[in-house]
């Protein structure tokens, strides 16, 4: 009998109820499980559809290559064919394991820009979502390699380190970017991420530091936390409009878990809207057409999908070594393995992207007040993800638009919880996004043509120099564009009178009781950078809110019990 099976057998014997049930042990779920169980009076059940994070490739940074597309760790979702991508459908990786996507992602520590959070505060009419308010929350989690400062925290569970490698071609790309007007920076996380430099990463001495290690493992020692893996939640259960528990399936058996206080969906931008719709919360007409009883007609569920589309540009170079040739032969691979085994450094400690840059797509546009592009630069090239590296030296500069105006959706097409939802990102569906994409390709060519790279005679192999006009560049963007794995916004927060909002400013699902969503799906607008650590911050804030609400309920209950009985005349 496996560990998962024995856990589920034990679960059949559980009696009583939990205070909180968290659905999804990804980044947000791990944070919530840790923070809520710091109070010994709070009993929490954490459900995860995937298994334990004991697969060795999760922990070796380069192991993302073996985790993405692997059913052991990935939901294996795909998008619908995308008109903006010339009819192509994309793989859409999402973590299905303890730690969620933090167990398979690029490990890049990125907060985004000050203005992102100030806009959240405006949309929610709540200043507690502003940059100045959330910065202390980021710092509380953080254990930054440089120690505590005005911008960073130390001693928290979320380890942030410098990368343990450098590449000559990346150093020269950085110089070339500076020669085109992008300044050097040593920190992308002060609220203004303008500049070029190496990314900081969520690693500890060259090993991936996922949310499971940082938050869940310390909490597992507490008797008030129950974690069940292999538990695929089918729907949340309502009595009237109050959420009272969840139904989940594991080991070919159906279970019902009851929640005294709340159910918290932390299943991510794909699965949280899916679960809401399966449970009768969403567009009423859509749900009725699938035979699902409507609990709350909430049209915003599954809408407002945003993602960062990266445009992969690859350049063949001469006179400088890249990973393509460093790993081309068995002895090169052996030396790379030995370097990592002895020192946890070198190519096996690489995050998927090492060098970053934030820049404006049109420096002459006076209305563009902050960077709207992010680069992920790598000392390697390949035709597409999962295929072998090219046999010649090359680098890849992937550039994504940070604040796309295109909006997509995620919706169920069946009442069967095991059926994947329809994922339609709707990339490059606006004139603005297509124009920014063309400008992004132009900027990359200017960097590649800068003096610092000239000695290496870069030759564009992807998408190719045949694309020159605005129309051709937009076509090229559709040909090479792919997700950088940052879906957000499908249960967006807003004010209660906002017809597109799904949760309020305290992440409570609008129109029902006892149900919250806490994950990247609540972002009203995507952050200007990688989305994992902003999701962690959201969960930190949510844990505070949940405990505050719990204390208010308890004190209100005590006050009601101790208040004098009304007099007959008052009655």
TrEMBL record:
Glucose-methanol-choline oxidoreductase N-terminal domain residues: 95-118, 268-282
Pfam family, one: GMC_oxred_N
Recorded superkingdom: Bacteria
Enzyme class: oxidoreductase
Residues that bind FAD: 97
Annotated Polar residues bias: 558-571
InterPro entries: FAD/NAD-bd_sf, GMC_OxRdtase, GMC_OxRdtase_N, GMC_OxRtase_C
Region of interest: Disordered: 549-571
SUPFAM superfamilies membership: FAD-linked reductases, C-terminal domain (SSF54373), FAD/NAD(P)-binding domain (SSF51905)
Listed EC numbers: 1.1.99.-
Signal peptide range: none
GO MF term set: flavin adenine dinucleotide binding; oxidoreductase activity, acting on CH-OH group of donors
UniProt KW keywords: FAD, Flavoprotein, Oxidoreductase
PROSITE patterns: GMC_OXRED_1, GMC_OXRED_2
Reported cofactor(s): FAD
Family label: Belongs to the GMC oxidoreductase family.
Protein name, UniProt field: Alcohol dehydrogenase [acceptor]
